[in-house]
Amino acid sequence: MTPEQFVAGLPKAELHMHIEGSIEPALFLRLARRNGVALRWQTEDELRDAYRFTDLQDFLNLYYDGCRVLVAPQDFHDVTRDYLRRAHADRVLHAEMFLGVQGHTSRGVPLAAVMEGVFGAMDAAEAEDGMSSGLIVVVQRHRSEDEALALLEELRPWYGRLLGFGLGGAELGNPPSKFAGFFRCCRERGFKVVAHAGEEGPAAYVREAVELLQVQRVDHGNACLDDPALVAQLVRLRIPLTVCPLSNLKLQLVPSMAAHPLRRLMDAGLCVTVNSDDPSYFGGYVNDNYLACQQALGLGRDDLTSLARNSFEAAFITPEQRSAAFRAVDAWVAHSIQQAAA
Ligand SMILES: [Zn+2]
To answer: Which residues make up the environment of ion ligand 1, defined by Cβ < 5 Å?
Structure first.
């Protein structure tokens, strides 16, 4: 069995992806036509050519512009369903997806249109593919905490379906501490909480996310390596990191995959997971990320299996789901050993 075949069949969870970042060029152009949205690009190739970024802000400018093609419930349904199909094909058993609701409501899209479209697609994935998923609303850190608190109120009709809240967008100059009150409210209402930290920002932002926001996972978190005491704390508390290797490469946070800190994060004893972030913009879905790391960092089967097990440990799922997922991983590993012996 080749590494490609092993990764393809390895059961996994994906915990860090943005629904808006999974619009493939063909769907992007179709939605633009459907909604009469004028674009700077006419073809899929022109659009792919535009996906070259110098840093996070450069990417966010194009990303927010791209969100304009999402207008009606069916648009949100289509993009979510397409992602879940691709994830299912990558043997993702469970996905936790981010949605930047403010980027849509600020353009005048009704909150109900966004939520109904996404939840409809999640229901369809469960019914058609037996795949579970959860939704985490990400508040944009360049906006105020008051706006985040207002959104929390507006989302009340969907509390029963929401998994939790996160923090995303332009990191530098917008430290987690800016949202301490918002995160306290989310926790008090029983939601899971996560935050992007230590992607472009410093280790101090990771520390704030853990200590002030009391997050249950850190999204990215790469910068923690600059602070050994923080690494020890993350290991002791077993707080997972949702690392996104191809995203880091595309946004030029690392010069090459060989220079990616994934291996060092794993060697430090951290609960590391591998994820796609914005798969259509960053050139790959979750299995592409596993394979890019396997090739550049020389990960073996045991390493890949650990990453998959970590993804289920870090997922917001029931103990029964977790046990079943671990059994599926063990069965796949046993199958691969049998194949090698045959
Ligand atoms: Zn992200």
So the answer is: 277
